[in-house]
Amino acid sequence: MMMKPSNYPRHPRRRPRNGWRRSVTTAILLLLTSSHHQAVHAYNQNEELSYLTNFDTLTSQSHSELSAVPIEEMSWLTANCINQGKLTTSSEVIVEPLVGESTVTSLEVQDQCDQTSHCIIPQSLTLVMNSNLNVGGLTLNGGQLSWTDNDPSSNKYSLCAGYVIAQQSSSLFHMKLTNSSSRGIIYIKNNGLSPSTGMMMMGTRVFGTDMGGNMNIEGSNDMKRTWTLLRDSFGWGDGVIGVLHDVASMGWKVGDRIGIAPTTHGSDGTGQTFTIASILGNNTIQLSHTNPLDQIHEATFVHRGAGGDHGAPPILKSAEVVNLSRNIIITGDDFEHVPCDASIVSSGETSSMGCKCSATRTTCTLGLHTIHHSHHDQGGGGGSSAGSMKISGTRVEKCGQRGIEGKYCLHFHLARDCPSCVFENNAVEYGHHRGITVHGSHRTTVRGNVVWDVRGANVYIEDGNEMHNEISYNVAVCPHSLSDPILQGCSIPGTSNAGSDAPNAAFYSKAATNDWIGNRAANTYNGMLLDAGTQGQASGQVCASDAALGRWMGNTMHGCSRFGLYTLGHGGNFPKVTDRSIGTNGLNQKTALCDGFDPSESINPGTTDRGYPASFYQNVDYHNVFVGHYNAGDLQHRAHSSINNNNLIYWKETKNFADGCSSHFFDSFYQDGNLALPDQGSIIFSRTKFGQNVHLEFNHHCDVGATGVLCMPQYILDNSVWENDNSNKWISFQAGYNNDGGVLSVAPGQEDLPNGFFPEGYHSVAGSTYSYLLASPGPRKCIDSSPLYGDRFDNGILCNAPLRSFKMYSRGLTGSTAPMLKVEVWFNSLGLLGQNGPANAEQLVGFHMIGDLSVKQGYSFPIMAGLSQSYRISLFDQNEGTTSEIPLDWVIEFSDPVIGNRFGVDDEVYVNVLGRSCGTNGDGLITSQHDRKFLWSGDHFIDDAAWGNFGACATESVDMNPVDCSALVGGNPSEEGSIEASECPELCAASPCNPINSYCHCGMPSTCKCKPSFTGPDCTVDLCSSASCGEHGSCAAKYLGGVGDVAIDPSFECICESGWFGNKCDVNPCEMGEPAKTCSGNGKCFSLNGIDAECDCGMGYQGNDCEAHNIAYGKASSTSSELQPSSRAFDGNIWSRWESAHGLEDTYLEVDLGDVYDIESVNIHWEASSAKRYDIEVSSDGITFASVWSKTDGYANMGSVISMLNGASGRFLRMHAFERTMPYGYSIFEMEVFGVMGPSSPPTPWPTYKAISLAPTVSKVPTLSPITSPPSLSLFEIAREKISSASS
Known about the structure:
By secondary structure, the protein is mainly β. It has ten helices and 92 strands. The chain starts with 27 loop residues before the first helix and ends in a 10-residue tail after the last helix.
């Protein structure tokens, strides 16, 4: 990976010296990887009293743009509009024009209407704004309002009213102030008035449309971009910022107010606002004041690294910089608290009729609200929107009505099909009940908006029936720390949806079939949350958890205290082919299509699975707590980048893909955190890269509550690379009811390819519970990993044979009476004929059940695939000591058809199931391709049709139809298993879209929409074309939105792969030097500045070109005390270790170098139990030792310590410890010694050793296997020629 700072030459983040041999006692991962992290406090739904008590403090942190309005304008507003109080009387006035006129000016209207008037503009009359106007309320009842900047120098007017409504289809509120020097203020007063007509209860303080009215508001077209990213990190005392885009070209100007988002972890940051004091050159801005906070707003740009990247965008870990100024302002009176009305009765938590009393609410908090309501209910049947609303380039503030339904800052309400409904390039700030809401509406556009300091959801899709809305390139920022005891982030209590508001979500959706593209969330409690379900008038009419997924791509979530990108559907998220459409208002007509199984096999021929695979595409998560899914299937993370999250993935349950081919993870990248992986199915990681400090937690939530099934998933590494070389635990087997579940294996055909995860010769791992595997014969068939690798593999069992899951689903058993499952194994190639004598090994497997009296029950264990062994399976009564047959109705599942479909080799095994006939003519041979109809759809567990009929060894069991996985990806074998972002090319068959720059939109037949980084009417403007990054760079502009005439700083157009430099990422001092720097093949070359090259040496090497080798490797060793052999400190294996007896202070560890050496340095890789005081001592005879180096300030977990001896001479060297740092003993992973032959010693060749014997040894001299090159025992080093490294 690579990070770019602000000035050229740019360089990668410097890895620590000896970065391949990281500190073996790193504690960071243990802090990062708790999958049960508890987020800090927010205002919960029932904490209204605390919220109200702190309200004045909350709002004191918020900003109204009226403070920036010139005094001459403010004086009129102050005198006539601001906080004038409630009216006691009002009257209705229908405005009349002069005879024969069809227009009337605001001056003329003011003569007829005063501040107490319900002022009505009737049919065929147009109100022209040419002055300030102050009325009680304004209704366009078939009439129009025109407010343009024909005379921009004088067009700085304000419209004040208790409400403004465009009502009826001929009504139009038209406001177009495209010149930035113009300003228009719409001031909504809290005068107690509300519209007297209309079909919806608009309430007070409303600005919007009803009954088909239209509204078109367009602010300055000078502002080409509403947000950018920091180019340089911004810290305490800084008064200048650098940004990615050219400031002047964006249309930003002196006096604009900007916000800089926090980039801290877990909603613990503070956003800051400044005024632009001046615009400097080189994309820099002089701010109104310096940064007063001891907080860094990060600007780091990370290339994901070579290998498995395949065009994925870079990770832009950079603070968002948003422009909060607009020349049109919708504002109003301060918020008001009103008591609830006990007379309001409705079925929901809140009501649109007013402030409904509830258990969590006695008071509502009212600001202004905007709405477009087209006079539709949520019934079935089609229908286009009556009327439209477009608001762009506008600022909305002091908005939202907490506790009242449907009263939000910007709101499309029941608009149905409304492609002309647009919210674009607006700034929404200072809100108390959601920012932008799309409710019961389809094909609307919400693009380029910035939402800042809004309590509750920032962008909200409400009922669950909404379809094909585009939510793109919006930025949502909570500028308040969740740990602040008063502000408590941007949470808000007493709303209709605690999941979206208390605490808040940046982007919250009940509906899956919408497009979320290029959005960014910062510091909110939740980032992008798909909480599939229904509510309101769509309640019960949509199978929301089964809805097809739209295009969810290029979104960045960071700093979220709970979820980043996450799906949390009621019943999970398992997309299927159903009959929802815009024509049905997004409602399901045939709910049978939502069932888990399709008996007709018409949806996916050859299978009963109704799944409709889709992908979350090129999204980025960092500094969050949870990322992933609750229960979800047929969903792929494609080119996902998840780094620096507590849980890089947090997924509870999944399923096999309905297409029989797809991977759960494809082209993805994970670093610094835990992957809490799901149960059930085959979870394949294809072309996925695991960076530093990654931990895999197998079926992590199985048997917790109701989640999980049999806790025996199989995980497959398919052309994936593991670059994590720290010595912490890499995996954990989550222990279910009675097992140690999950297996991890390399994909078939890739066993001999280096992957960085498995030691050479091994390619599967299972939990230590299944000790029968250790009886497998042959050289190193299966071994206990703990003697050589400690808890690296959770003390599991490493095998060089493929391990797969074997599951047997039972029914009607209880945990107290269920028998054990007896598994017997014969290690021969004779099939069932080889089972005549006693078994070579056996294992008793306990009964497993999720919760009490669950239908999710049975037995599971890892099985060794292949024909070199056979199994016999029976039930075993421990009390009686007898075996019995497996009931005929139980369902058996072995491996997965994806193995044969994807990798061309079926898994096979001989199985003798007592009471069953397995295989052809009872030969016992079953394969991974066996029929599994009606077994598991994710949301439907085994159908009655399956019991006794389907699965392996069943009466109707046949192999599944083979699937040509290449055909699913256009015949490209390298893309097998991948899923593109959702598109519908069949709808554009008459005029196909150019696949390079566009795609056919699923909600707009015959419509090609531009792919990210392309723009223009025909999608031919490529925002990445000027970058021309080449194969070692990645375009930064892909998901930044915008138009082609706003350039990115040329130095940041391309984010370079580690080791590559220059604007086009075409400079590499390691590869382009004369000669190229090879590091002797024992290290990796890197450069700090794009000019000079250095080597980062691997385990066992040092020197400028890594030419010096560890002279202690493989040498005879001894110790005064050992629990684990001294030889393990000299075996070149960073995962094995020497351990002394506990409780002893005076202890030594010694090595015989074989000859006299001039010793230059000693590098000790300490485990946590290190020495506080120790000496390095040398001797020529092994009897008399002299101290040549001392340490007196050691501490626990101190990692690697290098002792520079500068030529001390001797044949024998030892570490002599005198005082412990922990109550145990001393423990060392590896002790390396570097030096040169002394003058009196004859030269000896460097031994050509490969690795120690994997069998435990107690001898001083380890058993070695000769090879032809120096040792390189770090697992990362074994694969270094195939795997490109990522910086930490």
